[in-house]
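Morning, I've got a small favour to ask if you have a moment. You're getting the sequence in one-letter code plus the fold written as tokens. Thanks so much in advance, here it is:

===
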Amino acid sequence: MKNFTTVLKIAPAFLLASTVIHAQKKDSLPQEKKIDEVVLIGYGKQKKSDLTGSITSVTAKDFNGGATSAGQLIQGKTPGVQITNNSGAPGSGTKIRIRGTSSLSGENSPLIVIDGVPQDFVGMNGVSDPLSLINPNDIETFDILKDASATAIYGNRASNGVILITTKKGTAGKFKVNFSTVTSVSTKMGKVDVLNAQEFRDFVNTYAPAGYKTKLGNANTDWQDQIYQAAWGTDNNVALSGGIKGLPYRLSLGYNEQNGIVKSNSFRRTSVGLNLNPKFFDNHLSVNVNAKGTFTDNRFVDGGVIKAATYFDPTQPVYSGNSNYGGYYEWLDSGSATGYNVNANSNPLGMINGVRDVSSVLRGLGNIQLDYKFHFLPDLHFNVNAGYDYTKSDGHKFKDARLRPGFEDKGSSNFYSMEKKNKLLETYFNYVKNISAINTGVDITAGYSYQDFNIYLPGAITYRGTGINSQDLDFKTQNTLISFYGRAIFTIANKYVISGSVRKDGSSRFFNGTRDNVWGVFPGVSLAWKLNEENFIKNISSISTLKLRAGWGKTGQQELPALNGNKPNNYPAFAAYNPSYQGAGYQFGNEFYFMFRPANYNPNLTWETTTTKNLGLDFGFNKNRITGSIDVFRKDTKDLLVYADEPAGGLSNASWQNVGDMKNEGIEGSITVIPVKNQNTTWEVSFNATHYKPVITKLKDRADEFFNMEVGGIEGGSGNRIQAHAVGYAPNSFWVYQQVYDGNGKPVDGAYVDRNGDGIINTKDMYYYKSTTPDAILGFSTKVSHKNWDFALSARAVLGNYVYNNAASNSSLQSASTNEYLQNVFFTAPQYKFAVPQYKSDIYVENASFLRLDNINVGYNFGEIFSKGSNLKIYAMAQNVFVITKYSGVDPEVFGGIDNGYYQMPRIYSLGFNFQF
């Protein structure tokens, strides 16, 4: 039945494909002529040689192979862009940061624009990463706008950069079919370094009281081996393109299935994409229609499974020998109502098999863009872009009554859903004219944008075997953006380029009953000097390109973290009454009722504003066999959005406020060299490097020197946090005590340095030690083609970043003598001999610098093996090949810098075929 359902999902697409094949008889349009290389700049395009801002373009020929999400395609490919995988779970996607962070509590992800449709920043229930709903095989280019002179045209959502994604389009010409299939096997990188069964017996027998020694079992169980598996995957794509009677088209179909290295985890995506780009009225009217649909099935694994496998006693068996709790061994407590020890770790396999957490997500993203070139004035264009983005998710989390996860409730079923409807309407005029009398090119744009975001979450329902059911309240919200923008670009004598833009944004998010904080203005200006066009350089044959760039601009930030789940905080400045949450009902008799209560708000809340200065140099030598760029920049952010304490007398003890400032200075560069290029062989080598240093320059007014904002929650204790924001330090710096060591270099239990010399060890002795901000981010790639063979690899290095090892900090001698169960420990516990966990010790903040070989592949092209115009290529690939690091955990690349049960990145081996005709 499941396979039949999958067929139904993709059947309409294949029917459409057969219609296109039948209709295509011959070429309908001549092949398009090659044009100058252009780059998208937002509401327009520009020749790469004329760019004034810091913009990088990555095309399909340079993408990383084997990517299952959009972000992985360009990982390590461009300076200033750090892309970190959310986890190793299939479909989990990536976190993208451009030139570090600009906000403390607001959004730090760039604005993503897909085929002219800006995306929202709101997550989706039942989806790890909304960008994973886009098939990477459909993407043609990424244009990355990094400095404010380039991003200001996107105004209040552009402080973290803008990524313009363009999908593949149809081209006029012969009918073409491109089919690719990849089969892969994923394996784990390694295991958390905890004690094996014999080591744990020795540990317990050495440090535990007699009553706990008797709890040791006779088994020899590697719990991490029990939860991990070798997982297979497949990625299949077919694309049909050509032209039918003046109608260029591209139709793509895809099916991706990835199983996770943790048992039961899986991700399946079916996708269809259609692009039509005809022209009418003697090519005066260009039409571009984009339509994409995806359907994904997810099965998630409980987030605590990896931690349970890390800590569960290795001397205990998987199965208990009886039918209790599904037959899985669990720690018992005769005094507990459930019969099991509620403080103890759950059996990891019992968690996997006791919970079935699945979701299905449908997404449709489409737009139609009309560009009309006026007959009476061909230099003037009018562009209209109308788009619609619809996403619907449904999920079900079932807990088996027989196993520990569902035992207390006698089984439960939780049903949830979510719906997003985003609408877009944009119009702009664009005038492009080369005025020969003054040898100046003019490119002027003026436009209007309307975007509306609607979200609806029906109240999730939970049914329990105990009969105590519950339902959340429905949630519905809307956010609207209205904008006016303009840009002018002047190219003088093909040597000097001047660009200026301004955007006025109106956002409903800061509506406080008045329009005082609704509107913001975001200008940008940049200059470029093409030195290679000057006479004193033009005749130097070895210099192909030499251009200086300078830019300045202001951008905004309006995104706040969700209220809870994926409920956006759309009205933080408006006085309102909201229903109380589950557990906060008012009792009348034996019934509890939801009441309306005043919501906390700040009527003075407004945008964060980031001002960026950028200076750049683009170069090319030896007929552009050597090309590259260098940029230095500074970003100053003011009115930081932070959830901070407020004086007594309000509706809450904390609220969203504009309380601080931050600066971020950096340098980035890239170079590409083609050492060999002849008829048979081409060899290309690319390298990029980035360094930046964010520092908080202001927090709350009238705060003393010890004031900070604690962040970075950790496992262990109650409410412990290990990071903090403080003036003079990088965001998310680790706030810890300095560990004392004895003469042999061994840490002294509970002893810390009295840093202020007052004879008392307290929080005034804590210090800011390192942070998650790296000293340098490096990327390297090379590709070689020789006759029919090709070879490529890509690698990344991150230097000077630090990670807090929570698995190590949560391990101590106490693990063998607390709460009537035994808990395994990190290998450092018997070395440090801490009687109880020392969570705040700097010994657990580890250097997580690493070098990772991301991708290596080799392929052979058989050429026209079947017929003229056909092509067959076979290739093999390995991903996440190795990691070199001193970090003691499994993987040093942990987003957020706190390693606590991280789902490691798998090592993947793939075999692929690509067939064209």
